[in-house]
Design a protein that fits this description.
- There is one protein chain.
- The chain is 51% helix and 23% strand.
- The N and C termini lie far apart (36 Å).
- It contains nine helices and eight strands.
- The chain has 194 residues and is an alpha+beta fold.
- 30% of the residues are buried.
- It holds the Pfam family cNMP_binding.
- This is Crp/Fnr family transcriptional regulator.
Length: 194
């Protein structure tokens, strides 16, 4: 697992260089974890107990309501953080599900250890804030796309941002993520040069 910890350190240092003493405290929180395909790691209505660092596999955060409507909100894959971050940081029950779409391996850190460390380690707190700011920026961009773009523009923007996503994620989830009917999504794949 040392390679996995090095991947985590590489990602952290790409955001901001982390002093070795803070890194050692942070690295000590993470433990290996794996999950099967279609395993729900976080349930709606329950607290988010872990911050995940994705090593392999694809996951999604989604919303599901009483009328059986589903909305895929975000995909996670290596190397990135995963989980329901608002529930984790606000320490409130999650409104969303976090599920694996493929067999997945992670490092994960318990929120009960992570939050106290963030409170006393300024560089780690800064890196977490930077990561959240980037995530918020992505969410705002996506809201504009959902509200203003045509289906084709949304599809093209997805391919521009993540060209490899068509090979990673089942198309029905991508269609849902874009707010496009599955049949229209198939037409876009066949019509637009990738």
């Amino acid at each position: 697992m040392p390679e996995a910890i090095l991947e985590l350190k590489k990602l952290m240092n790409a955001i901001y260089p982390i002093p070795e003493t803070e890194w050692e405290a942070f690295a000590g929180l993470w433990k290996p974890f794996s999950a099967r395909r279609k395993e729900v790691l976080t349930l709606s209505g329950k607290p988010e107990k872990y911050l995940y660092f994705v090593l392999e596999g694809v996951q999604r955060v989604y919303y599901f309501d009483e009328q059986n409507r589903e909305a895929t909100l975000v995909f996670t894959y290596a190397p990135s953080f995963g989980g329901v971050l608002d529930a984790l940081l606000l320490q409130q029950p999650s409104r969303y599900f976090y599920e694996t779409l493929t067999p997945s391996t992670f490092l994960r850190a318990p929120v009960s250890d992570l939050l106290p460390l963030i409170a006393i380690k300024p560089t780690i707190a800064f890196i977490i804030r930077q990561g959240l700011a980037q995530a918020l920026s992505g969410v705002l961009e996506r809201l504009v796309e959902l509200q203003c773009f045509t289906s084709e523009e949304k599809f093209r923007q997805l391919l521009k941002r993540s060209p490899h996503i068509l090979q990673l994620v089942p198309h029905k989830y991508l269609a849902n993520y874009l707010g496009i009917e599955a049949t229209n999504f198939s037409k876009l794949i066949n019509r637009i040069r990738i």
